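CHAIN AND CONFORMATION:

***
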Amino acid sequence: MVFILKTDDPVNVLAAPNQPDPETADQSVYGITEIQAYTMNKKLNLSKYLNKKVILQGTLMAAISGHHYTKILMEVKQIDR
């Protein structure tokens, strides 16, 4: 199952400056309205928040493989309602 966060408004995700390897460096992405969300924390159950408004805290990264369904992904560290 893939979890997609739909934002209320478009957001911009800016790449960190001075990344050492330009070939694998994240690029800035503008006007994002969907972010693939996942967590490595087994205590966080993303499925219980389906179709609910939430505030997520975590780390963003650019999609790099065919298993990434949006341009930006978030490793979720915390969920608030």
Remarks:
- The chain has a mean pLDDT of 91.
- The chain has one domain: 3-17+24-80.
- Residues 3-17+24-80 form one domain.
